[in-house]
Amino acid sequence: MKRCMFIDDSSVIRKVAKRILGGSDMLVIEAASGFDAVEMCTADMPDIIVVDGALPDLQAEDVIRRIRAMESPIQPQILISLVEVDVASIMRAKRAGAQGYLLKPFNRPQLLECFRTLRIAA
């Protein structure tokens, strides 16, 4: 079973993602802050991580860098989640180790297509 972590200070975004992705082949884990997410990844690294581009405690690139610096047999695929296409934020996230981005708010078809693309790239 694949494990996906959604890091977002919005409980609505986390719940929607969990409702869309949660099922027999995907376990969705929620983190409300960058610090919580880093701590959770230290204990148990997920396969896919979606990081909010506007976290209140850490910048998304810092979260990505901290996760990438961890020693783990799992090298997660990481996406930054943004409310609009911001090329500078996307490039900073990619330099930190992200594979791509996801626009929010998202709907079921958009999120599922994004995750299908991740599986192909894996």
| 3D shape | globular
Q: How many angstroms does the end-to-end distance come to?
A: 15 Å
Backbone structural class = alpha/beta
Return the CATH topology.
Rossmann fold
CATH architecture descriptor text: 3-Layer(aba) Sandwich
Tally the beta strands.
Answer: 5
Question: Helix proportion of residues, in percent?
Answer: 40-55%
Summed over residues and divided by their number, the pLDDT gives a mean of: 93
β-strand percent reads 15-25%
How many DSSP H or I helices? 5
Walk across the major sheet and give the strand order: 2-1-3-4-5
- Low-confidence stretches at least 5 residues in length (pLDDT < 50)? none
What's the order of the H and E elements? EHEHEHEHEH
Number of domains: 1
**What Rg, in angstroms, do the CA atoms define?**
13 Å
CATH superfamily: Response regulator
CATH class: Alpha Beta
Instruction: Characterize the main sheet.
Output: 5 strands, parallel
Write the layout of secondary structure elements.
Blueprint (H helix, E strand, L loop, with lengths): L1 E6 L3 H11 L4 E6 L2 H10 L4 E5 L7 H9 L8 E6 L4 H10 L3 E4 L4 H14 L1
Parallel strand pairs: 1-2, 1-3, 3-4, 4-5
